[in-house]
């Protein structure tokens, strides 16, 4: 029996559901390639990634960016400092404030984790997709990029 094409609005709904599901599973698989996520909370991971992308910031700036109270952010940051992933230095403009930044050890860890994930995904693409399918994935990536452009 031939499947009847879905109306465009139903197709968009189905595609949205499929994309969410696939991206979620892909994120889980990528996380499994490193042990760092098992040791850190979602807020702590967000702090590390924010500091990596945006550079040094105060606890209150990080809290605002993550939409949580400064006290909660302080609780999230303390274990990162204890683990040697984040360090605080006095703000040169206001000695009462502390500016947080990633340590060299954290930068090295992030690079290692990203490399492991990249290697896993590259190997998986090569192993599971033919050359033609890899070309199809490249075309689909362009469409996905358009979805997230701001």
Please give a structural write-up.
The chain is mostly helical and 150 residues long. It has one domain: Arc Repressor Mutant, subunit A (Orthogonal Bundle). Helices cover 70% and strands 8% of the residues. The chain is built from seven helices and three strands. It has helices at residues 8-31, 36-39, 42-54, 59-66, 70-82, 104-128, 131-148; strands spanning 57-58, 86-90, 98-102. The chain has a three-stranded antiparallel β-sheet. Helix 4 (59-66) packs across helix 5. The longest helix is centred in the C-terminal third of the chain and has 25 residues, at 104-128. The N and C termini lie far apart (42 Å).
In brief:
This protein has helices at 8-31, 36-39, 42-54, 59-66, 70-82, 104-128, 131-148, and strands spanning 57-58, 86-90, 98-102.
Helix and strand layout, with pairings?
Blueprint: H1 8-31, H2 36-39, H3 42-54, E1 57-58, H4 59-66, H5 70-82, E2 86-90, E3 98-102, H6 104-128, H7 131-148
Antiparallel strand pairs: 1-3, 2-3
Helix pairs in contact: 4-5
Please provide the ordered H/E string of secondary-structure elements: HHHEHHEEHH
Strand order of the largest sheet: 1-3-2
Number of domains: 1
**From the helix content, strand content and strand pairing, which structural class follows?**
mainly alpha
CATH architecture call: Orthogonal Bundle
Nearest-angstrom radius of gyration?
A: 20 Å
Estimated share of beta-strand residues: 5-15%
Mean pLDDT: 90
Helix content: over 70%
Q: What is the distance, rounded to the nearest whole angstrom, between the alpha carbons of the first and last residues?
A: 42 Å
Count of distinct strands? 3
Query: Looking at CATH, which topology would you report?
Result: Arc Repressor Mutant, subunit A
């Amino acid at each position: 029996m031939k499947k009847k094409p879905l109306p465009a609005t139903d197709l968009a709904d189905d595609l949205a559901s499929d994309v969410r599901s696939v991206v979620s599973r892909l994120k889980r698989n990528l996380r499994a390639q490193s042990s760092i996520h098992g040791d850190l909370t979602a807020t702590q991971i967000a702090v590390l990634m924010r500091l990596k992308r945006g550079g040094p910031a105060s606890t209150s700036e990080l809290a605002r960016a993550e939409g949580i109270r400064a006290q909660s952010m302080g609780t999230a940051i303390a274990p990162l400092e204890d683990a040697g992933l984040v360090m605080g230095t006095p703000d040169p403009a206001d000695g009462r404030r502390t500016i947080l930044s990633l340590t060299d050890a954290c930068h090295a860890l992030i690079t290692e984790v990203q490399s492991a994930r990249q290697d896993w995904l590259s190997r998986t693409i090569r192993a599971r997709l033919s050359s033609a399918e890899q070309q199809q994935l490249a075309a689909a990536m362009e469409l996905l990029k358009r979805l997230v452009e701001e």
